[in-house]
Structures are given as structure tokens and as C-alpha cells.
Amino acid sequence: MKGGCLIKKIDFKYSSFDGKDIATTKYITENPIGVVQIAHGMAEHRKRYSDFAEKLTDEGYSVYINDHRGHGETAGKESDLGFFAEKDGWNSVVSDMYKLTKLIKDENDSIPIFLFGHSMGSFLTRTYITRYGKEIDGAIICGTSQIEAFLLKMILPLAKLEKLIKGQRGRSWLIDKIFFASSNKSFKPIRTKLDWLSRDEKIVDEYIEDKYCGFKCTTAFFEDFIGGMKYLAYTENFKTIPFDLPMFFISGENDPVSNKGLGVKKISENYRKIGIKDASFKIYSDCRHEILNEVNKEEIYSDIVNWLNEKNKTERFSK
Question: What are the residue ranges spanned by the domains of the chain?
């Protein structure tokens, strides 16, 4: 099924539902057999996915990826990093993703669209498919996790209190610490505070040096984020997902976000329990959080391409 190669890389902005300009890159391949839309993670940006995107174009898939609100060039100035919106930020970002899907459909004639979400992008993707699952043809969920609703109910008042004290754009050191303080604990010897991202030291160093990475998010962001996680804590919210939507869950064995892969296994099982017919998973030995940036990333790229090609052959796409 292999198609062409990268023929165009175009940076552009599209206007979302409320007029917000969303910075985006599209990687266009020759005679594409499908499109992969990517949702990146927290405190990073779209340009970190260029290597993965070019691999996909080599295999016949065009790629579209935007910087979420409060991230990368969509945020623009430093004071807007880690801030979604004045209100309803989580749903605004999900709506941005849907607007991009519609743009992809306008620019591509009747080929499958797959949504790939990493980390925070995995939570956004899991929210997206409860609302717009019929708009895409498959979802790859990378580095995700599940926090119990009762724990989120305990954290949410702290986020609201911080927002009250510091304002919407105040930096939330407390909630950031609650979520990430223990991420590095299982890695010895510790070289940096972000060793948990990848075994590839070059990747970690580039992340640390990148002005669009690693920033502390705002109080309003964490209130939005916790609200999104809370929505995903209730399996009844999954029942609006099309039961024939194929899903592939992937994670590193040493990823602290996914509870060392155990969370990913549990989540995929939860989807199957409610009737999702195809919710497979794979845990990669020794890999940390950013499996697309791991030392064995070519293995992971290959598995993703094989999954995409397999789903491209199914009856769901032969209509």
C-alpha cells in the first residue's frame, strides 16, 4: 500500500470556530492513501513531530498537525504559553481539532483520516472521539493514562483555589507538582529532571533548551485539563464512540504517565467492555514517555504504519 514521498511541507494558520488563529503544518505526500492528524502533548509543540511526519509521508500518508492553544506558535508570546482560553478551554481545543479535520476533508478526496494523540493529545483525542468519532477512521492513543474520578475531585478544588489567588494566567506550580513531581523517581542515576521523557539524551536536552517546551502551565489550564480528565474518568461517556472505530493504544514500559503501561492496558480493556470492537494495545519494553522519540523509534514507527495499513484494508474503508 506504500504511496509516495514528501512533496510539500507547508506552514499555515487556520481560523477556528471563534476566530482564533491556529498555527499548523501539513506534510503532503504524493498520491496519499490516507491522512494522519496529530494532537501533540502538554508543554511542547508541533515541530517536534517532523521526523515522524516525514516517515508517514514516505509510507503514503499525508500529515496535518497544529499547535494547540497555549502552545507553540499558536500561543505566540510567552505570557500565553500554557493558557487555553478565558473559558471552556478544553472543549475549545477539541473544537479546534474538529475544525482541522473538516479542513483535511476539504483538501483530500475521500481517503481515510486517522487521529494520533500523544499524552495530553491522547486525552484530547479520547474526548474528540466521543463527539466526532464518525468523522475519522481510526485513532492511535499514545502515552495515555486514567486517573480515578475521586482523585480528580480532590485536585480540582485546589486548581480553582490557585486560580482565585493567582488569576487565570498565574503559573500553577502546585498542580504541576502534583502531576509530575514523581515522574523521575524510578530513573537512576538522574541526569536531568526530565529523564522520564526518553532514553535519548539528545532529545531530552533539546526539549530543555526549547523555548516552547517545559513551561509551567497556568491555573486556568489545569482547571480545564482536570475537567477533561474527569470527563474521561466515566466510561459511560465512551458510549457515543462508534463501535466500529478501530483504536490502537501504545505506551512505554517505563512511562510514568501511563503507570508503566498498566494504565494503557486497563483503558483499552474498558473500551472493549463497552462494545468497541477493535481496541488493541502494545507496550514497548524499556521505553519511557515519548516513545516517538525513543532510541528504538523506528520499531514504533513501523508498528504504527503497519496498523494504519491494516486498517486501510478493512471493509470500513472500502465503501
Answer: 6-146+232-317
Measured CA distances, 156 to 69, 96, 149, 227 (Å)? 21, 24, 10, 8
Fold of 6-146+232-317: Rossmann fold (3.40.50)
The Cα 94–Cα 115 span in angstroms is 12
Report residue 280: phi and psi, to 5°. -90, 165
Residue 250 to residue 108: CA distance in whole angstroms: 27
Please tell me whether residue 192 adopts helix, strand or coil conformation.
coil
pLDDT of residue 318: 47
Percent over 90 (pLDDT), the chain: 87
Contacts of 295 (CB under 8 A, 6+ apart): 198, 199, 200
In percent, the amount of the chain with pLDDT more than 70 equals 97
Predicted confidence (pLDDT) per residue in 172-210, tens digit: 999 999 999 999 999 999 999 999 999 999 999 999 999
- Give me the pLDDT at residue 65, please: 98
Q: Decide if 221 contacts 82 (C-beta within 8 A).
A: yes
Report pTM. 0.96
**Are 144 and 122 spatial neighbours (Cβ–Cβ below 8 Å)?**
yes
Residue 125 CA to residue 38 CA, distance in Å, equals 9
